[in-house]
Amino acid sequence: MTKGQVVTMGDSDSMRARRYRAHRAGDHSLCRPEACDAVAGDHVVGSIEAAVRALAERMVLGDDDPRAVMLEMALRLAGVVDVTPTATDAVRELRSLLAWLAEHPRAADEGQGVGDAELSAVLEGLG
Q: Its domain of life (predicted)?
């Protein structure tokens, strides 16, 4: 095995059966993007994290700003969503964090912050 090579392990029989039953019932949360047209779409790996990172760079954060923690959590979740777009829990939590950041765009004494348009664009990317 060479450096940077990704090894993919096969699923167990029970996991394949769960995925198959869920897919047949219309639940695509277990489907793989490369195998199911319902989740394949135009998702580009890294695009959500890049959008959240660009948003983070525009935010003005002061010392002991609680938004810094929320933003770090959003960045980590964005990485999970990029790798596994069917991770519905991660998508839901990321949307919650971004919505919270939209409600708290800047401290009262700061002159700049992230506008609603930027946050809306990232939220739209989550579907």
A: Bacteria
